[in-house]
Amino acid sequence: MAADTADIKAWLDTVAIDPAVRTLRPDYRALVVVAEGLLPGPSDEASEKLLASAEETARARLAGAAPEDHPHLAAWREAFRAFGAKPQRTRPSAEALLRRVPAGLPRVDRLTDIYNAISVAHVLPLGGEDLDHYAGPARLIRATGEEPFATTAGGETVVEHCPPGEVVWSDDAGVTCRRWNWRQCARTRLTLTTTRAVFILDALGPMDDDALDAAGQALVDALIASSPGATVASRLVR
Question: Which residues does the UniProt record annotate as the domain B3/B4 tRNA-binding (predicted)?
Answer without folding.
Answer: 74-228
